[in-house]
Structures
1.
Amino acid sequence: MRRRITNYFIFSLTSLCALLAVSVLLFILGYLLWHGGRSINWAFLTQLPKPVGESGGGIANAIVGSGKIILIATLFGVPLGFLGALYLVEYGGTRFNFAVRYAADLLNGVPSIVIGIFAYTLIVLRTKQFSAWAGGFALGIMMIPTALRSTEEFLRLVPRELREAAYALGAPQWKVIVTVVIPVAMRGILTGIMLSVARIAGETAPLLFTSFGNRFWSHGLNEPTASLPVMIFTYAVGPYDDWHQQAWAAGLILLLGVLLTNIVVRLFFRPRTA
Amino acid sequence: MITPENLDEQESRIPQMRFDPMQAEEAEEIPQLKTENGQTPAITLLKTNLPEGRSPNRVLQAVKVSTEHLNFFYGQKQALEDICIQIREQCVTAFIGPSGCGKSTFLRTMNRMNDLIPGARVDGSVLIDGRDIYARQADPIELRRRVGMIFQKSNPFPKSIYENVAYGVRINNLARSRKSLDEVVERTLRGAALWDEVKDSLHKSSLALSGGQQQRLCIARALAIEPEILLMDEPASALDPISTAKIEELIFELKKRYTIVIVTHNMQQAARVSDFTGFFLIGRLMEFGDTRRIFTNPSKKETEDYITGRFG
Ligand SMILES: Nc1ncnc2c1ncn2[C@@H]1O[C@H](COP(=O)(O)OP(=O)(O)O)[C@@H](O)[C@H]1O
Ligand SMILES: [Mg+2]
């Protein structure tokens, strides 16, 4: 009897917590929809911001800017993480592996604002210019550890039997890697990379003093560049009600983008069950 | 099913296999030939079960693989101890023994698969066609093209059936055109007795095949690059009796062209398919010889105990 009660109690408690965990997401989504939903329309997505003080206008430049920055970050962070992981799994000695893995975990723990300062000192101060490059560099650094660790994880999941099958057919190591290991791990690796993209998409702190912001289109990659998170920050703390509205709406767009990426990735890159 | 009926009357004239090559010279009727480096008696006269399994003839079978005082270590742990053996061409040689006694390890020394294990070390020599495959200038990649391997757990690539068979041909650049690749794929799938079952689904995933079909696909994949030796590590241990029978039939067919070395924990299987049998016990080759003799008249007590099921 006592056991049944305890059992029931634990069951209720844990299921309640599970429910709470899920409802936090739903609550945030609902809140954003409530406040920002009605500001979203075609003009909002395709127009530039109106001059300060006027209402209306859109966030097209921030959407495109975020796209540029994320692209740079991906092109910089993913190859480094991917090839590094390949080295760890396929070639590395255990001592060095340990050092690299540990460094990656530490890097993962470095606060994003510190990475922002680093990029600021290294790029912005040197080029005397806020730019998409600087923002992309900062976010790219943040992608390295996640790309490295998730790639490593999925490379390690490739069964030893498959590698051996290829070796037994006279494949040299690089061919085993290129023709068997990477194709088998590819879905998992892509999933990991897409998820890490989704994660950095919302980073704000490192962008504040690297890509800065821009109320107009930025041409090329060498100008201050608008991005969704920085725009949300600026509008949210600004004095106008219309800005607050737009900040909610931009937040909704950002969240939807991240959720969509997650869902698409999970649907299409779901590890094959065979 | 394999054993010729009148084997017994021939038995006395057959030189017995010894696992110590030094003793081979005592046997009668063995014309001793030396290879260039003088290491291996290359040809020995012996009777083997013929492909048709009927008339017992005396056939010249050369030594394909031989090992001399082979020791093997996983780090500090010694897994093989002083193995000396001669494996004949176009014969099936089976290794039996309790699990963990080094059968797989021994098999994998013959295609240098153990090179991939960190800390693994070989001492002594393994000769194929009289040449030491662990010599400094020997190339393990080239070796593995000549020595195919079938694993205990079938391991087709998660690609199409066609791509599995074509894999070795492709990476070794053995086919000149798509057409000749198609031919190789068909020929090897026929050779592995799988063609009729898969000819309409060549481009479907290999993972959709049954366990037995997957294992035959792995055999086809190994055969596609035309190896000389086929190493099989308990190839049927995970299969049902019907699939097992198919694999055994296949082995019987394949030995016309290949030297086959098979590890099995199934003694009936060893008796059915092999010409020679070796018995391993804790890293040592306890006894080696004509399969029929090993099973009817083992010379070591341990062998007899194992065969009669008293341990292992
Ligand atoms: N990769 C390895 N590292 C260390 N020891 C191993 C490894 N593989 C096998 N061994 C050990 O070597 C011995 C022989 O193993 P194995 O050749 O697989 O035996 P069998 O195939 O006869 O069952 C066993 O004691 C096993 O634990
Ligand atoms: Mg084994």
2.
Amino acid sequence: MLAQLVRWSRIKSPWVLHLNTGACNACDIEVLASLMPRFDLERFGVQLKGTPRHADVIICTGPVTRQTKDRIIRVYEQVPDPKFVVAVGACAMSGCVYRGMYNVIGGIDQVIPVNAYIPGCPVRPDAFIDGVVKLLGSL
Amino acid sequence: MEEFTVPIGPQHPALKEPISLRMTFDGEVVKHVDVRLGYNHRGMEKMAEERSYIQNLYLTERICGICSHSHTTCFAQGVEKLMEIEPPKRGLYIRTLVAEIERVHSHLLWLGVAGHEAGFDTFFMYTWRDREIVMDILESISGNRVHYAINTFGGVRRDISEAQKQTILDSLGLLKQRTEYYTNIGTTEPTFVARIKGVGKLSKELALSLCAVGPTVRASGIKSDVRKDDPYAVYNEIPFEVCTADTGDVFGRVVVRVNELFECYKMIEFMLKNLPVGDIVVKAPRRVKENEVVSRYEAPRGENLHYIKSNGTDKPERLKVRAPTLANYPATVEMLKGCFIADIPLIFAAIDPCICCAERMVELVNVKNGEASVVSFGDLKKLASEQYKKCGNKPEPVSIAKQLEKIRRKS
Ligand code: SF4
């Protein structure tokens, strides 16, 4: 009974944290755009939060740069369990055009475990919503 | 009075471009600002040396997502000069058209962010909704919403059809109407104006000596615009005005950007109506003779500069990029000095539209006892608005620690 309630509330109101790990901004503005009136991700209860301690889902954009690596891990540790990580964009998946640069480690999964990958450079808001809904559906 | 050091950033989850600002406060007033960069450093310039020119075109596009067209155009222009080819007129027109549409999208985005930082979220939602119209136009022209990839050496990759022209002209009408509404709000709505007037002052002399660029310098009353001063592409054929304001504060920057929006609409209309017929692209060679070039471009945020050195192969020997935001940092530091904590988000947003996100982490360090406390940007904003409520529009220096304590207890 309680477990059901918890599951229900988790699916109905996932709070997300947006984490830029060195992205080119395009993915970020698209993530924001999907929270805006046209696409309105909030109808699924998704809300953008500013601190990791309030979030359930981390939305990562961009490749991991050497300087942000430790911070990603720190942020990941601050998010309370159960936590989910969504890698948004080709960068977060593999490094995209930045792959092989001296300051780029690669995709997010090199540093923290990832639950869902959303491809695109940048991701379209539609794709982003689709990915989030699929993640919610898998809970 | 106690002195505080407040590092803002570097990597707060909601911060768009990771940058760290270490500020020292005397009570409520900013005393020193120390900018630390390099968190978003990926090593692009080095990588550019290992890739061919055409690959670099797509690499430079990914320097920044908001003004992706500005970097490719700047790069393409430079390389075209090195290759000694001249793109056909129609190609140049389409290139400039996309550039101006991009400026509209960037300015609308910025307006929303300014509203958001001033505590006016309705405005934020409105502008972002209307920005979608622009995104649709861009998508119809180029096939992608953000990275248009329309440039290629010697012209552009896609043509514009008559039907597309018509739809763009139709949507322009709606955009104009909405922008008039924003002008009204942004420049006459008393609460909003009271919040942004006199904040983040930058005098004309200071703006000049610190080499500020773009709307930041234009808001200080200096007519500086690469499009007029050193016309590239087809800007010498298109009629337009350089918009300036002489207040030199955040209000001035809003005025400049809103007026620029109208100029953009005029230019887009002109370009669509006078689109020359002909080819859109000429063939470009693969190898580039040994030479060097500096290419300038007026991006939505200011002057963008690319320096390219070629060595006779199909790869550049050196690519150096100076983006407008970097040029504006010294001016930002000056603007922040002497301002109140409550104004930091606003001043920041006024210069660097990249910071669109809601919250950032601020760490307050009490210099005397070295005690650090972490507050979210939301708390900071709450503190700001509370203080403004209390003392009208003239915040007085009070102890930050006391106020934060109060907010904490409340929540
Ligand atoms: S995936 Fe593409 S759009 Fe997204 S951050 Fe990377 S380069 Fe930019």
